[in-house]
Amino acid sequence: MMQSVTEIHCFRLGQHAYRRISLLSWLMASGLLCCATLALFLCVTVWRSYDHTFTFYLKWQDAVVALSAFTTFLTLGGIALICCFLLTLRSGYKHDMITLEGRLLTARDLSPLNLASIFWMMNSVFWCAVVVVIGLFPAMMIGWTLHLSSPVLSVVLTTVASILCLVGLVASIVAAAFIGIGCIGAFKSVRKLGAAHRYELSNRTTISIDHRELSILHPGHPESMIDLTLLAKEDRHELLALLHERWVDTEKEWNPELGDEISAALLETEDDLLATA
Fold first, then answer.
1. 189 near 84, Cβ under 8 Å?
2. Can you tell me the distance from the alpha carbon of 242 to that of 240, in angstroms, rounded to the nearest whole number?
3. 266/55 Cα distance (integer angstroms)
4. What is the pLDDT of residue 196?
5. DSSP string, 240-272
6. What local confidence, expressed as pLDDT, does residue 2 receive?
7. Each residue of 13-27: pLDDT tens digit?
8. Over 90: is that where the pLDDT of 54 sits?
9. Distance between alpha carbon 102 and the CA centroid of its chain, in Å?
10. Does position 4 have pLDDT exceeding 50, yes or no?
11. Whether this model's pTM surpasses 0.85
12. E strands within the chain?
């Protein structure tokens, strides 16, 4: 009995792209480490500078300590995400970034835009923490109003500050809820950073190439947008040729215009190969 052997074509992350993205990752991690060190230093310095006796109002030093401690935690979490991405990046360089096995295509997004996603996620969580502190500002004002020289003015302003505390508390709770959601999303995003997605090349799959970016869309699967320039020029040329071959074999059912898009991408790749020859 004859058995057909399915050829497996693996395309790894190019060396130049691997070094460039690794350098960007390490620079970002170093910057975050510096931020974490400064935030921790500020937290320890302020913590040692005031009395910790219990009061019915919030001290501004407590807010600074909490925000700086949270910033330290946030930046260390960002560094952990970058380390996870670096491991995935190395896997794409040593093993495969795109795999073509018969009618199955496996791809992972290893573009430096993953680093931008980490940054903007941290940026959103940080400003939510700032909103939490701002919402608690009326509670800090009580410490000032209680020590006013005028008793009448002290009572009036303390009452106003107490009412504002309720409004600020609502804002702080909402912002804290967003922080919690962001932290949960961060844990989930660890598995998505450069994760491999497998697609069946069928009439339900939509593939397009625009400006050297491969877009893959299949029902029930996340959309993948792969930067083909991350591949070595020879691998990119071979991948495009194989995709064109599979597209013709499936009677052009993925995307009727894919042939023209592949031809244009092949011409650009051949020009690049000639330029470096």
1. no
2. 5
3. 71
4. 84
5. HHHHHHHHHHTTT-S-TTHHHHHHHHHHHHHHH
6. 38
7. 999 999 999 999 999
8. no
9. 32
10. no
11. no
12. 8-11, 98-101, 104-108, 196-200, 206-210, 213-217, 224-227
Nearest to 199 by CA among 212, 186, 215, 185: 215
pLDDT surpassing 70 at residue 251:
no
User: Pseudo-torsion of CA 258, 260, 263, 264, nearest 10°?
Assistant: -110
Q: What angle (nearest 5°) sits at the alpha carbon of residue 236, between those of residues 230 and 241?
A: 155
**For residues 93 and 234, what is the distance between their CA atoms, to the nearest angstrom?**
15
Q: Can you tell me the mean pLDDT for 105-110?
A: 90
Structure tokens at 104: 């199955």
Tokens (6 digits) for 257: 């215009």
Contact 67, 179 (CB under 8 A): no
- Average pLDDT over every residue of 165-191: 81
9 touches 101 (CB < 8 A): yes
Contact 11, 97 (CB under 8 A): yes
Residue (of 266, 225, 193, 244) closest to 98 by Cα position:
225
